[in-house]
């Protein structure tokens, strides 16, 4: 009888296992959600805490700017530099954006470069490199600009606001060109052989001030100068020198030697000997122009536009 008894499956056991698995997954999901919520709360509280800490530190008078030291500024005043930088004593030194302040400073036409450094808790240092104007250049319609140490325009010429710039050499004949295609606006300036020649002439060590510098693409550079005003052979203080495109220092030395020679030629003993040059200078006809384009053959023109009947060659 026992051998014929059927064995029945335990359906309740399988169901218990499924319920147990479902319950385990639910608890794991709930645990993950709770941990995620806790993490979000911690981050939120941390952010709020950092915001309060930031506000407390930046608004604390302990970190207010109490002293600003400025170096390198001669043309601009202390107050002008602070206003340009957007800095005031009493501002938070921690809230100050050094990059923005520097950009504001270098936007000023007379500031070539700037550097800022803060010393916690309340000291600010500003170092200024000012622009140096080396000449003023004429543009079309008689508009004038000041040139920086690179020979590039950096601001309009203002004779009333900046009277000292009136004594700078006046340059004519240079043409503005697009030298950079930067966005949003291209940069215009001077470049080329004539521009390099003008810079070389202005940069000669020990060269006194030129009154005018005229640049011509065919004839080169011509200057009006009073560097030789002590020479008696000149009609007045100014003389025109035609210098061409190169060898400016050598040509200026040659011009000085020529005028030294002519000073000697204007002596009464030279006149008495019937010397043509001495007679011309003795009659009060001073030198107005010396053409040194070809240094081996220098032509001299008198102030009354008469050309002397001689041409110096080589030796003088």
Give short descriptive properties of this protein.
316 residues, alpha/beta, Ubiquitin-like (UB roll), Rossmann fold, ten-stranded mixed β-sheet, three-stranded mixed β-sheet, 7 helices, 15 strands, 26% strand, elongated
Describe the structure.
The structure is a single chain. The chain has 316 residues and is α/β, with parallel strands linked by helices. Helix content is 34%, strand content 26%. Strands 6-5-4-7-10-11-12-13-14-15 form a 10-stranded mixed β-sheet, with helices on one face. A 3-stranded mixed β-sheet has the order 1-3-2, with helices on one face. A hairpin with a 3-residue loop joins strand 2 and strand 3 (123-130). The longest helix has 49 residues, at 11-59. It is elongated and about 125 Å long.
